[in-house]
Design a protein that fits this description.
With about 950 residues, the protein is an alpha+beta fold. Among the domains are: about 1-30 and about 475-600, Butyryl-CoA Dehydrogenase, subunit A, domain 3 (Up-down Bundle); about 320-445, Up-down Bundle (Butyryl-CoA Dehydrogenase, subunit A, domain 3); about 630-725 and about 735-745, RRM (RNA recognition motif) domain (Alpha-Beta Plaits), CATH 3.30.70; about 755-830, Alpha-Beta Plaits (2-Layer Sandwich); about 845-925, no CATH class. It has 31 helices and 24 strands. The strands form eight sheets. The chain has a four-stranded mixed β-sheet with strand order 1-4-5-8. It has a four-stranded antiparallel β-sheet with strand order 2-3-7-6, with helices on one face. Strand 2 and strand 3 form a beta hairpin. The longest helix has about 35 residues, at about 310-340. Pfam families: ACAD9-ACADV_C, Acyl-CoA_dh_1, Acyl-CoA_dh_M, Acyl-CoA_dh_N, RRM_1. Its cofactor is FAD. One of its GO terms (cellular component) is nucleus.
Length: about 950
């Protein structure tokens, strides 16, 4: 034993000790609200957790909460539940009409009244306060019935009791419970108000604010909440707002922390917007709520000042298992519809349920329903047994159930074929309703990160304890020897995974051994990830998502093995099919887990993640799909930059120096007052435009923009009768393919014609802030901020009246400390006219006149060229001279300054420029200088 300990100490110091120093305790919400989380300081060993999923991250099998499958209902509770099931089923069959609710986009009063009479709005409220006093398992059964019949009505019920007044149940003091629980069971709706325009998944960044009144009796609440279920009908709300609290690190100073409040509409200052128009769950009421100087009594603080984040997370964690129950009911109904069709539909001389393609669909659909239902009852049973360690499992059930239900409903529609697509089948409504369940109460993407980071935190804390043990080995021999035994046998290939085959039925022992092996491999993968990434693991979302998916599959496998074991032991008539479903699930889950763990450890896969990040950046930089239609794939995308407003003193070397740090420059082409710069990489061009537009070059502000059109040598019109730039004769540029016109346009595509430029925009204003601010004027269809230019935004409205309303109301208004200016953007052919703006792309009126005259001369030259091509090819020197004189007349200032200059280099460059101009004039017939054309310096 001592030799083993010595071996471990020696090898650990050489190979792992440096890596172990990087272990840390990752807070699970760090990825959500890094600015608002405090660092976790572990004093002493980490607290033991009975959660199977939490211990999975350590490679341990903790079976206390998964074996045996929970049976928490006593005889009286089971009888009470049976008495409730029949009336609830009868209500949904005879009273509620989900199709009518969906069409009318509301639940009628008759239906709601019947639900109040049934006690459906107070299922878990104790009987002393007027509720039914159901436990979590009983609640799960009734929620299944609701989910099988009407998901929109399920939202009305769930928003009321699963999260609406759940805070009072969990954190309310006796006075709060006495005051509010009887009211929420007797006809007053409740709502949970957390989400704000600037705060979606990041709950810590909410901006609603509550400040204590001077007399200390009230909090004055101001702010707004969006997308609140029951928001338009709720009388009692759990509202979260920032409040100033004493900073323990800086005595005498305060910091903002989230606090939960019980707010009544009757307090005054509470108003609601109109019901939102939604894709699904149309019968539920979803609205924005505004709080304007609402006086909230200090007695209505819920859970303590500054503890709002904890209150919110516990409410959501406590209610998530109910979503899995509802999804299990929905899947059961979808499968029933699919089976009814498959067993009666005849094709190719046989019922379609005899075809293997349909059989596979039905088998997978039923297995997913079985897994989801098993999770719901496993978690509710754990909660009823008094467990406090179920948060990861509840999150997993929500993620798994919502995605499984979407898959099952989609496959049911596929089995019904064209009939499934019809409204009368009822499945299209269910599919629309299901989509929201992957978004609210924590998006599935955020919950995956929550699962992965919470588990990694737990594993990291135990590994940190091991690191501390190495520093004082004589005092921690037990921990060291335990770890030594495990690592040594693993090193020599003799390790055996933690086993729980003795807890399952003998027919499922092989599947249990497979899962136990996965647990061991998963623990090793977590340790390797922590050693490799340390604290930076919070940024590795590609890896975290795959670790979360593997954890979900392993937990689901254990749950179905537990349930199937119980059915086999009890010799239920469905035991054999449950056994098949458990074995089928474990086999395929093992394949997915193996693939995810290999991906996490594979250097090639990690390299592929880097490529994905680059692709995503390209998409965002391009404002959409970065590639052209394949028909025009020969065009070079965005490597050229136009530089306008150059002073006559600027030379090519100045241009190169100006752009040098942004990337390798392939070519610089200059003309009087403007230039084109071509980069090797379009991303370098993007960076240059973003950083340099409006900056000074040799004392003059220059405009730096993406060049439009195509280089002369690669003109897409070549070979089709065209010469130089532009389309062939007889074909207008604006009659080209829309893809080409879109390519020529600089800036984001115009979605409507009612577009405003917002100037003097604060750098702190995001596009979402700008969009929300402009919504008070009308419907906003698009917004961006600082995308084309710093301190400038773009807003598009749905109608002309909305745009005018914005100009009248919001022009010269203050937004984040700056007075913004709104200017109508008149785009015609990609140009922008801004009559009220002092800014202009051209710095000189005379220069604009010169260009317009050049254009008119160019048109006259083109006319004469059509009469005699030979004449245009052999211009006389006199003509060139006269053209130079006219150009000189159009800009006398510049001509004068040039004639007075004594600089030899300047004169040399000027003469070179004139010779290039003559040569170019003779070849391309005096095309005027615009941004739409590239210069060929070899011309």
């Amino acid at each position: 034993m001592y030799r083993t300990g010595a071996y471990l100490l020696q090898t650990a110091q050489k190979t792992k000790n440096l890596s172990l120093q990087r272990f840390f305790s990752v807070t699970a919400t760090q990825c959500l609200t890094p600015k608002n989380q405090e660092k976790t300081i572990n004093k002493g060993p980490p607290e033991d957790d009975l959660s199977f999923t939490m211990n999975l991250f350590r490679g341990h099998v903790e079976t206390k909460q998964v074996f045996p499958f929970p049976q928490t209902l006593n005889e009286d509770q089971a009888d009470n539940l049976r008495m409730l099931v029949d009336p609830v089923n009868k209500f949904f069959q005879e009273v509620n009409d989900p199709a009518k609710n969906d069409t009318n986009e509301k639940v009628d009063e008759k239906t709601l009244s019947a639900l109040w009479e049934l006690g459906a709005f107070g299922l878990q409220v104790p009987q002393d306060f007027g509720g039914l006093g159901l436990n979590n398992t009983q609640y799960t059964r009734l929620v299944q019935i609701v989910g099988a019949n009407d998901l929109a009505l399920a939202i009305v019920l769930g928003a009321h009791q699963s999260i609406g007044f759940k805070g009072v149940l969990l954190f309310g003091d006796e006075n709060q419970r006495q005051k509010y629980l009887p009211r929420v069971t007797a006809g007053e709706f409740a709502a949970f108000c957390l989400t704000e325009p600037s705060s979606g998944s990041d709950a810590g960044s909410i901006r609603s604010r509550a400040v204590l009144s001077p007399d200390g009796k009230h909090y004055i609440l101001n702010g707004s909440k969006i997308w609140i279920s029951n928001g338009g009908i709720a009388e009692i709300m759990t509202v979260f707002a920032q409040t100033p609290v004493d900073d323990p690190k800086n005595p005498g100073k305060t910091i903002d922390k989230v606090t939960a409040f019980i707010v009544e509409r009757s307090f005054g200052g509470v108003t609601s917007g109109p019901p939102e128009k939604k894709m699904g769950i149309k019968a539920s009421n979803t609205a924005e709520i505004y709080y304007d100087n609402v006086k909230v009594p200090i007695e209505n603080v819920l859970g303590g000042v500054g503890n709002g984040f904890k209150v919110a997370m516990n409410i959501l964690n406590n209610g998530r298992f109910g979503m899995a129950a509802g999804m299990a009911g929905t899947m059961r109904a979808c499968i029933q519809k699919a089976v009814e069709f498959a067993t009666t539909r005849t094709q190719f001389g046989a019922k379609i349920d005899t075809f293997q393609g349909i059989q596979e669909k039905l088998a997978r659909m039923t297995t997913l329903q079985y897994v989801t239902e098993s999770m719901a009852y496993m978690i509710s049973g754990n909660m009823d047994s008094g467990s406090k360690h179920y948060h990861l499992e509840a999150a997993i059930s929500k993620v798994f159930g919502s995605e499984a239900a979407w898959y099952v409903c989609d496959e049911a529609i596929q089995i019904l074929g064209g009939m499934g697509f019809m409204k009368e089948a009822g499945l299209e409504r269910v599919l629309r309703d299901l989509r929201i369940f992957r978004i609210f109460e924590g998006t599935n993407d955020i919950l995956r990160l929550f699962v992965a980071l919470t588990g990694i935190q737990y594993a990291g804390a135990h590994l940190k304890e091991l690191q501390m043990a190495f520093k004082n080995p004589t005092a921690n021999l037990g921990l060291i020897f335990e770890e030594a035994s495990k690592r040594v046998v693993r090193k020599v290939g003799l390790s055996s995974p933690p086993s729980f085959s003795h807890l399952v039925h003998r027919d499922l022992a092989s599947s249990a051994n497979d899962v136990a092996k996965l647990v061991d491999e998963y623990g090793q993968a977590i340790e390797n990830v922590l050693i490799k990434y340390g604290k930076s693991i919070v940024n590795e979302q590609y890896i975290l998502n795959r670790l979360a998916n593997a954890a979900i599959d392993i937990y689901a496998s254990v749950v179905v093995l537990s349930r199937a074991t119980q059915s086999l032991n009890d010799q239920k008539k469905t035991a054999q099919v449950e056994k098949y479903m458990a074995e089928s699930w474990v086999l395929e889950a093992k394949q997915r887990v193996d693939m995810n763990l290999r991906t996490v450890a594979s250097g090639r896969s990690l390299d592929n993640f880097t490529k994905m990040s680059s692709i995503a950046k390209s998409v965002c930089d391009a404002g959409g799909v970065p590639h052209n239609n394949p028909r025009f794939s020969q065009q070079k995308m965005g490597t050229r930059v136009f530089v306008g407003g150059l002073t006559y003193r600027v030379r090519e070397r100045d241009i190169e120096k100006f752009f040098r740090k942004y990337g390798r420059i392939k070519e610089v082409a200059m003309k009087n007052g403007f230039a084109f710069v071509e980069f090797d990489d379009y991303r370098d061009a993007d960076d240059a435009v973003y950083e340099l537009n409006g900056k000074e070059l040799l004392g003059e502000r220059v405009s730096v923009e993406r060049a439009r059109g195509t280089p002369r040598g690669s003109d897409q019109w070549r070979g089709s009768g065209g010469r130089g730039y532009g389309p062939p004769r007889g074909r207008s540029r604006d009659n080209r393919d829309p893809d080409l016109r879109a390519h020529d346009r600089y800036g984001p595509p115009t979605r409507t014609e009612y577009r405003l430029i917002v100037e003097n925009l604060s750098s702190r204003v995001s596009w979402q802030d700008l969009k929300d601010y402009m919504r008070q004027a009308g419907e906003v269809t698009y917004a961006d901020a600082h995308k084309q230019r710093r301190n400038e935004g773009v807003v598009e409205f749905a109608s002309y009246s909305d745009m005018k309303n914005a100009i009248e109301k919001l022009d010269d208004s203050e937004l984040n400390g700056r007075r913004i200016r709104l200017i109508e953007d008149r785009r015609r052919g990609g140009r922008r006219s801004r009559s009220s703006s002092s800014r202009s792309r051209s710095r000189s009126r005379s220069r604009r006149r010169s260009r317009s005259r050049s254009r008119s001369r160019s048109r006259s030259h083109r006319s004469s060229r059509s009469k005699s091509r030979a004449h245009s090819k052999s211009k006389s020197p006199a003509h060139s001279k006269s053209r130079s004189k006219s150009r000189s007349r159009s800009n006398p200032k510049r001509s004068k300054s040039r004639s007075m200059s004594k600089d030899k280099d300047m004169s040399k460059d000027r003469s070179h420029s004139r010779s290039v101009s003559k040569d170019r004039h003779s070849k391309s017939n005096s095309r005027s200088p615009t941004k739409d054309n590239f210069l060929d310096k070899n011309a």
